[in-house]
Design brief:
This protein is an alpha/beta fold. Helices cover about 30% and strands about 20% of the residues. It is built from 8 helices and 12 strands. The strands form 3 sheets. The chain has a 5-stranded mixed β-sheet with strand order 2-1-5-3-4, covered by helices on one side. It has a 4-stranded parallel β-sheet with strand order 7-6-8-9, with helices on both faces. A 3-stranded antiparallel β-sheet has the order 10-11-12. Strand 11 and strand 12 form a beta hairpin. Helix 2 crosses helix 5 and helix 5 packs across helix 8.
Length: about 250
């Protein structure tokens, strides 16, 4: 066994026991332990980590730890461009697509409302999430830190908030989603793209009051639902505005 000193920064401390938060502490490491193994053994999912410095030098997750190493672990940087330093991921997740675990149905619906491709099934198992995340380059959203420790999951977010609206605000802040959202372009129910339709083609699907008051409609070719800008549209728009402003 070798001894190394660790220091976690900002929100990564939420994953640590109180006595280890916001301070350097020593920990024993197996002789073949990598930075990734120890970071997760200490309770922090690797998907929450943006930068690792070992003895002041940027390090990958596969670095073997040695006696006396000093390891500094950082979350996402909100202000500084640290791309020249990064050695953690082979490729960025350029096109943001998500897969949400069974606990986050409300968040999945709100992300679809904002125009983000978000897979969700309340019966989905962790193994299925891992497989689809890898196959389709999706960001895993979960409140289960053990899921984010799975080896092939490279991009993920541990969601701290409990309510769906607060979860959306949290995610908008962490991933800077405001600039890439396309509201009301994805079906809230089945995650398929929406397309505009003429009123005449959906007239038989509309309640009488909607026929009188509205002229713009969209539909989902998968589930055949029809959408219009009713009172629900105003509430959703207000929620998105709140998320952008957070």
């Amino acid at each position: 066994m070798v001894m190394a000193t660790f220091r976690f920064y900002e929100e990564l401390n939420d994953f640590l026991p109180r006595e280890r938060r916001r301070r350097a502490f020593a920990a024993g490491c197996a002789r073949a332990a990598t930075t990734k193994h120890m970071i997760e053994a200490l309770g922090v999912p690797h998907t929450e980590v943006e930068l690792v410095l070992v003895n002041g030098e940027s390090s990958g997750f596969d670095r073997l730890l040695e006696e006396g190493d000093r390891v500094a672990v950082y979350p996402k940087f909100e202000t500084f461009d640290i791309s020249p330093l990064l050695r953690l991921r082979e490729r960025p997740s350029r096109r943001l697509r998500f897969v949400a675990d069974a606990q986050l149905g409300g968040l999945a619906r709100l992300l679809r409302m904002a125009g983000f491709d978000t897979l969700y099934d309340n019966r989905i198992e962790d193994g299925e999430i891992e497989a689809v995340a890898q196959a389709e380059s999706r960001v895993v959203l979960t409140r289960d830190r053990e899921l984010l420790k799975r080896r092939t999951i490279t991009h993920g977010c541990y969601i701290r908030a409990l309510k769906a609206a607060d979860q959306l605000r949290e995610l908008f802040g962490r991933l800077d989603l405001a600039s890439s959202m396309q509201p009301f372009t994805i079906c809230l129910h089945c995650n398929a793209p929406l397309r505009g339709v003429d009123k005449a083609s959906v007239l038989d699907q509309l309640p009488p009051s909607v026929r009188e008051l509205h002229n713009e409609f969209s539909t989902c070719d998968n589930c055949r639902r029809v959408f219009w800008k009713g009172s629900h549209y105003k509430r959703m728009t207000a929620l998105l505005s709140s998320a952008i402003a957070s």
